[in-house]
Protein: Carboxymethylenebutenolidase homolog
Amino acid sequence: MGRSLCSTTRCAICAALTAAAIAIGLIFILSYVYWWPTDNSTDKDGDMDNSVDPPSPEQPCPSGDFHTGYIATGSTVAVNSDVVAYLSRPVGTSCKGAVLIFHDIYGYGLPANQQVADDLAQNGYVAILPDLFRGNPWQPDMYEYVEWKTSHSQERIDGDIDATVSFIRSALSVDNLAVVGFCWGGLQSVFASARLSIDAAVAFYGVGITPDDLISMNKPTLLLHGQNDTIISVTDVELLESTLHNANRLLQSVDDLETGALRGPPSYVKIFEDVGHSFAHRGDMDDPVIRQASEEAFNDMYRWISRFTPG
Ligand SMILES: *[C@@H]1O[C@H](CO)[C@@H](O)[C@H](O)[C@H]1NC(C)=O
Structure:
Protein backbone atom coordinates (compact mmCIF):
# COMPACT_ATOMS: atom_id res chain seq x y z
CA MET A 1 0.00 0.00 0.00
CA GLY A 2 2.74 2.38 1.10
CA ARG A 3 4.81 1.14 -1.78
CA SER A 4 2.05 1.74 -4.29
CA LEU A 5 1.45 5.22 -2.88
CA CYS A 6 5.14 5.93 -3.18
CA SER A 7 5.36 4.71 -6.72
CA THR A 8 2.29 6.79 -7.61
CA THR A 9 4.00 9.85 -6.13
CA ARG A 10 7.22 9.06 -7.95
CA CYS A 11 5.24 8.59 -11.11
CA ALA A 12 3.54 11.98 -10.65
CA ILE A 13 6.91 13.65 -10.14
CA CYS A 14 8.28 11.76 -13.09
CA ALA A 15 5.33 12.84 -15.29
CA ALA A 16 5.70 16.44 -14.15
CA LEU A 17 9.41 16.40 -14.96
CA THR A 18 8.78 14.81 -18.35
CA ALA A 19 6.08 17.40 -19.14
CA ALA A 20 8.40 20.21 -18.07
CA ALA A 21 11.21 18.82 -20.24
CA ILE A 22 8.88 18.53 -23.25
CA ALA A 23 7.56 22.06 -22.69
CA ILE A 24 11.07 23.50 -22.45
CA GLY A 25 12.09 21.57 -25.58
CA LEU A 26 9.06 22.85 -27.48
CA ILE A 27 9.67 26.42 -26.41
CA PHE A 28 13.27 26.06 -27.54
CA ILE A 29 12.32 24.65 -30.96
CA LEU A 30 9.50 27.16 -31.49
CA SER A 31 11.69 30.07 -30.53
CA TYR A 32 14.34 28.84 -32.96
CA VAL A 33 11.87 28.39 -35.82
CA TYR A 34 9.71 31.45 -35.27
CA TRP A 35 11.63 34.03 -33.34
CA TRP A 36 15.31 33.60 -33.94
CA PRO A 37 15.33 34.53 -37.65
CA THR A 38 13.21 37.65 -37.18
CA ASP A 39 14.95 38.84 -34.06
CA ASN A 40 17.33 41.39 -35.52
CA SER A 41 18.34 42.46 -32.06
CA THR A 42 21.59 43.77 -33.47
CA ASP A 43 19.72 45.83 -36.03
CA LYS A 44 16.95 47.82 -34.46
CA ASP A 45 17.62 50.88 -36.58
CA GLY A 46 15.57 49.28 -39.35
CA ASP A 47 18.10 49.79 -42.13
CA MET A 48 18.59 46.04 -42.30
CA ASP A 49 22.34 46.29 -42.44
CA ASN A 50 22.74 43.31 -40.23
CA SER A 51 25.71 44.43 -38.21
CA VAL A 52 27.11 40.89 -38.18
CA ASP A 53 26.97 40.83 -41.93
CA PRO A 54 27.51 44.31 -43.37
CA PRO A 55 27.13 44.85 -47.11
CA SER A 56 30.39 45.12 -49.00
CA PRO A 57 31.69 44.08 -52.42
CA GLU A 58 32.26 40.63 -50.89
CA GLN A 59 28.84 40.50 -49.21
CA PRO A 60 26.69 42.61 -51.49
CA CYS A 61 23.21 41.95 -50.18
CA PRO A 62 22.58 42.07 -46.43
CA SER A 63 21.23 38.78 -45.22
CA GLY A 64 18.39 40.48 -43.33
CA ASP A 65 15.33 38.46 -42.41
CA PHE A 66 14.84 35.29 -44.43
CA HIS A 67 11.33 34.51 -43.09
CA THR A 68 12.76 31.10 -42.25
CA GLY A 69 9.58 30.00 -40.48
CA TYR A 70 7.45 30.38 -43.61
CA ILE A 71 5.92 27.14 -44.92
CA ALA A 72 5.53 27.35 -48.69
CA THR A 73 2.33 25.97 -50.23
CA GLY A 74 3.34 25.61 -53.91
CA SER A 75 5.18 22.86 -55.72
CA THR A 76 8.30 22.29 -57.79
CA VAL A 77 7.97 21.82 -61.55
CA ALA A 78 10.49 21.17 -64.33
CA VAL A 79 10.60 24.00 -66.87
CA ASN A 80 12.95 21.86 -68.98
CA SER A 81 15.75 19.38 -68.30
CA ASP A 82 18.00 22.09 -66.83
CA VAL A 83 15.67 24.43 -64.97
CA VAL A 84 13.24 23.80 -62.14
CA ALA A 85 10.76 26.34 -60.82
CA TYR A 86 8.58 26.92 -57.81
CA LEU A 87 4.95 27.16 -58.92
CA SER A 88 2.01 28.49 -56.96
CA ARG A 89 -1.50 28.46 -58.41
CA PRO A 90 -4.61 30.34 -57.36
CA VAL A 91 -7.13 28.22 -55.49
CA GLY A 92 -10.87 28.78 -55.70
CA THR A 93 -10.57 32.00 -57.68
CA SER A 94 -10.45 32.76 -61.39
CA CYS A 95 -6.98 33.21 -62.79
CA LYS A 96 -6.10 36.82 -63.68
CA GLY A 97 -2.85 35.94 -65.46
CA ALA A 98 0.69 34.78 -64.81
CA VAL A 99 3.52 36.44 -62.93
CA LEU A 100 7.12 35.44 -63.51
CA ILE A 101 9.20 36.16 -60.41
CA PHE A 102 12.93 36.87 -60.47
CA HIS A 103 14.46 35.91 -57.12
CA ASP A 104 17.22 37.73 -55.26
CA ILE A 105 20.75 36.30 -55.03
CA TYR A 106 19.62 33.85 -52.34
CA GLY A 107 17.73 31.99 -55.01
CA TYR A 108 14.43 30.29 -55.67
CA GLY A 109 14.57 28.09 -52.56
CA LEU A 110 14.52 31.00 -50.14
CA PRO A 111 11.22 30.96 -48.20
CA ALA A 112 10.86 34.75 -48.58
CA ASN A 113 10.98 34.41 -52.39
CA GLN A 114 8.47 31.54 -52.39
CA GLN A 115 6.22 33.53 -50.07
CA VAL A 116 5.92 36.19 -52.79
CA ALA A 117 4.73 33.50 -55.22
CA ASP A 118 2.17 32.18 -52.73
CA ASP A 119 0.90 35.71 -52.09
CA LEU A 120 0.44 36.28 -55.81
CA ALA A 121 -1.45 32.98 -56.07
CA GLN A 122 -3.73 34.03 -53.22
CA ASN A 123 -4.45 37.16 -55.20
CA GLY A 124 -5.44 35.26 -58.33
CA TYR A 125 -2.20 34.91 -60.31
CA VAL A 126 -0.32 31.81 -61.40
CA ALA A 127 3.11 32.59 -60.01
CA ILE A 128 6.28 30.94 -61.24
CA LEU A 129 9.71 31.38 -59.69
CA PRO A 130 12.38 29.69 -61.83
CA ASP A 131 15.73 28.70 -60.33
CA LEU A 132 17.86 31.02 -62.44
CA PHE A 133 21.01 29.93 -60.60
CA ARG A 134 20.44 26.24 -61.45
CA GLY A 135 20.94 25.01 -57.90
CA ASN A 136 23.82 27.35 -57.19
CA PRO A 137 22.56 30.47 -55.39
CA TRP A 138 24.79 32.91 -53.55
CA GLN A 139 26.15 31.34 -50.38
CA PRO A 140 28.28 33.79 -48.40
CA ASP A 141 30.33 31.06 -46.70
CA MET A 142 31.13 29.24 -49.91
CA TYR A 143 31.86 31.75 -52.62
CA GLU A 144 33.70 34.90 -53.48
CA TYR A 145 30.93 37.19 -54.74
CA VAL A 146 32.32 38.45 -58.05
CA GLU A 147 33.52 34.99 -59.03
CA TRP A 148 30.15 33.47 -58.16
CA LYS A 149 28.27 36.18 -60.05
CA THR A 150 30.35 35.86 -63.23
CA SER A 151 29.80 32.09 -63.15
CA HIS A 152 26.16 32.86 -64.06
CA SER A 153 26.29 34.50 -67.49
CA GLN A 154 23.45 36.79 -68.48
CA GLU A 155 23.19 34.89 -71.76
CA ARG A 156 22.50 31.61 -69.94
CA ILE A 157 20.06 33.36 -67.59
CA ASP A 158 18.20 34.94 -70.52
CA GLY A 159 17.87 31.46 -72.08
CA ASP A 160 16.38 30.10 -68.85
CA ILE A 161 13.99 33.05 -68.63
CA ASP A 162 12.89 32.44 -72.25
CA ALA A 163 12.31 28.77 -71.44
CA THR A 164 10.16 29.79 -68.47
CA VAL A 165 8.10 32.16 -70.62
CA SER A 166 7.51 29.34 -73.15
CA PHE A 167 6.51 27.07 -70.28
CA ILE A 168 4.01 29.66 -69.06
CA ARG A 169 2.53 30.13 -72.53
CA SER A 170 2.27 26.42 -73.37
CA ALA A 171 2.05 24.30 -70.22
CA LEU A 172 0.07 26.85 -68.19
CA SER A 173 -1.84 28.37 -71.16
CA VAL A 174 -2.01 31.85 -69.69
CA ASP A 175 -1.76 34.93 -71.89
CA ASN A 176 -1.39 37.83 -69.48
CA LEU A 177 2.12 37.96 -68.15
CA ALA A 178 3.86 40.35 -65.77
CA VAL A 179 7.33 40.07 -64.24
CA VAL A 180 8.34 40.97 -60.70
CA GLY A 181 11.92 40.94 -59.42
CA PHE A 182 13.80 41.55 -56.18
CA CYS A 183 17.33 42.97 -55.74
CA TRP A 184 19.35 41.02 -58.33
CA GLY A 185 16.01 40.00 -59.83
CA GLY A 186 14.92 43.66 -59.95
CA LEU A 187 17.59 44.25 -62.57
CA GLN A 188 16.26 41.18 -64.42
CA SER A 189 12.80 42.84 -64.41
CA VAL A 190 14.28 45.90 -66.12
CA PHE A 191 16.06 43.68 -68.68
CA ALA A 192 12.80 41.77 -69.23
CA SER A 193 10.97 45.06 -69.83
CA ALA A 194 13.37 45.70 -72.70
CA ARG A 195 13.55 42.18 -74.07
CA LEU A 196 10.36 40.20 -73.47
CA SER A 197 6.83 40.26 -74.77
CA ILE A 198 5.13 40.96 -71.43
CA ASP A 199 2.42 43.30 -70.14
CA ALA A 200 4.12 44.93 -67.18
CA ALA A 201 7.24 44.81 -65.02
CA VAL A 202 7.93 45.60 -61.38
CA ALA A 203 11.46 45.96 -59.97
CA PHE A 204 11.89 45.95 -56.19
CA TYR A 205 15.22 47.63 -55.34
CA GLY A 206 16.87 46.48 -58.56
CA VAL A 207 20.64 46.44 -58.12
CA GLY A 208 22.90 47.88 -60.81
CA ILE A 209 20.25 49.49 -63.07
CA THR A 210 21.83 52.07 -65.39
CA PRO A 211 20.10 55.02 -67.13
CA ASP A 212 20.69 53.20 -70.45
CA ASP A 213 18.86 50.14 -69.13
CA LEU A 214 15.86 52.37 -68.38
CA ILE A 215 15.85 53.98 -71.81
CA SER A 216 15.83 50.48 -73.36
CA MET A 217 12.66 49.45 -71.50
CA ASN A 218 9.66 48.70 -73.74
CA LYS A 219 6.95 47.90 -71.21
CA PRO A 220 5.23 49.70 -68.33
CA THR A 221 7.72 49.40 -65.48
CA LEU A 222 7.40 50.25 -61.80
CA LEU A 223 10.58 50.78 -59.76
CA LEU A 224 10.33 50.57 -55.97
CA HIS A 225 13.20 51.61 -53.68
CA GLY A 226 14.02 52.25 -50.03
CA GLN A 227 15.38 55.65 -49.06
CA ASN A 228 17.89 54.11 -46.63
CA ASP A 229 19.17 51.39 -48.94
CA THR A 230 22.93 51.13 -48.46
CA ILE A 231 23.39 49.11 -51.67
CA ILE A 232 21.55 51.54 -53.95
CA SER A 233 21.91 55.10 -52.68
CA VAL A 234 18.95 57.45 -52.87
CA THR A 235 21.11 59.66 -55.14
CA ASP A 236 21.37 56.76 -57.59
CA VAL A 237 17.60 56.24 -57.48
CA GLU A 238 17.01 59.95 -58.09
CA LEU A 239 19.27 59.72 -61.13
CA LEU A 240 17.08 56.91 -62.47
CA GLU A 241 14.00 59.00 -61.76
CA SER A 242 15.37 62.07 -63.56
CA THR A 243 16.47 59.92 -66.51
CA LEU A 244 12.89 58.74 -66.99
CA HIS A 245 11.52 62.21 -66.35
CA ASN A 246 13.82 63.76 -68.97
CA ALA A 247 12.83 61.04 -71.44
CA ASN A 248 9.21 62.01 -70.76
CA ARG A 249 8.33 58.53 -69.58
CA LEU A 250 7.66 59.13 -65.90
CA LEU A 251 4.16 59.09 -64.40
CA GLN A 252 3.30 61.19 -61.32
CA SER A 253 1.99 58.22 -59.32
CA VAL A 254 1.19 54.52 -59.60
CA ASP A 255 -2.39 55.43 -60.62
CA ASP A 256 -1.59 58.47 -62.78
CA LEU A 257 -3.67 58.08 -65.95
CA GLU A 258 -1.96 60.77 -68.02
CA THR A 259 -0.05 58.27 -70.14
CA GLY A 260 -1.03 60.08 -73.37
CA ALA A 261 1.53 62.82 -72.83
CA LEU A 262 4.36 60.33 -72.42
CA ARG A 263 6.89 59.50 -75.09
CA GLY A 264 7.12 55.75 -74.62
CA PRO A 265 5.93 53.09 -72.23
CA PRO A 266 5.09 54.55 -68.82
CA SER A 267 7.16 54.13 -65.72
CA TYR A 268 7.07 55.25 -62.13
CA VAL A 269 9.78 55.43 -59.47
CA LYS A 270 8.70 55.32 -55.84
CA ILE A 271 11.01 55.85 -52.88
CA PHE A 272 9.84 54.59 -49.47
CA GLU A 273 11.06 56.63 -46.52
CA ASP A 274 12.97 55.16 -43.59
CA VAL A 275 13.41 51.67 -45.01
CA GLY A 276 16.47 49.89 -46.35
CA HIS A 277 17.37 47.28 -48.93
CA SER A 278 15.00 44.30 -49.33
CA PHE A 279 12.43 45.90 -47.01
CA ALA A 280 9.40 44.57 -48.90
CA HIS A 281 10.08 40.84 -49.14
CA ARG A 282 12.72 40.29 -46.45
CA GLY A 283 12.26 43.15 -44.02
CA ASP A 284 11.79 42.76 -40.29
CA MET A 285 7.98 42.71 -40.21
CA ASP A 286 8.00 43.28 -36.45
CA ASP A 287 9.08 46.83 -37.27
CA PRO A 288 5.85 48.78 -38.00
CA VAL A 289 7.59 51.19 -40.41
CA ILE A 290 9.01 48.33 -42.48
CA ARG A 291 5.76 46.38 -42.36
CA GLN A 292 3.73 49.35 -43.55
CA ALA A 293 6.16 50.14 -46.37
CA SER A 294 6.16 46.48 -47.40
CA GLU A 295 2.37 46.33 -47.54
CA GLU A 296 2.23 49.54 -49.54
CA ALA A 297 4.90 48.33 -51.96
CA PHE A 298 3.07 45.05 -52.64
CA ASN A 299 -0.18 46.99 -53.05
CA ASP A 300 1.54 49.17 -55.63
CA MET A 301 2.78 46.04 -57.38
CA TYR A 302 -0.77 44.64 -57.59
CA ARG A 303 -2.19 47.93 -58.84
CA TRP A 304 0.52 48.21 -61.49
CA ILE A 305 0.04 44.64 -62.71
CA SER A 306 -3.74 44.80 -62.89
CA ARG A 307 -3.64 48.21 -64.51
CA PHE A 308 -1.45 47.05 -67.40
CA THR A 309 -2.63 43.48 -67.95
CA PRO A 310 -5.56 43.26 -70.35
CA GLY A 311 -8.96 41.80 -69.52
C1 LIG B 1 16.76 57.49 -43.68
O1 LIG B 1 17.46 58.54 -44.33
C2 LIG B 1 16.98 59.84 -44.00
C3 LIG B 1 17.72 60.83 -44.89
O2 LIG B 1 19.09 60.65 -44.79
C4 LIG B 1 17.17 60.09 -42.53
O3 LIG B 1 16.67 61.37 -42.19
C5 LIG B 1 16.41 59.03 -41.76
O4 LIG B 1 16.64 59.18 -40.36
C6 LIG B 1 16.85 57.63 -42.19
N1 LIG B 1 15.97 56.66 -41.55
C7 LIG B 1 16.44 55.56 -40.94
C8 LIG B 1 15.41 54.66 -40.37
O5 LIG B 1 17.62 55.29 -40.86
Notes: Residues 1-10, 32-55 have pLDDT under 50 and may be disordered.
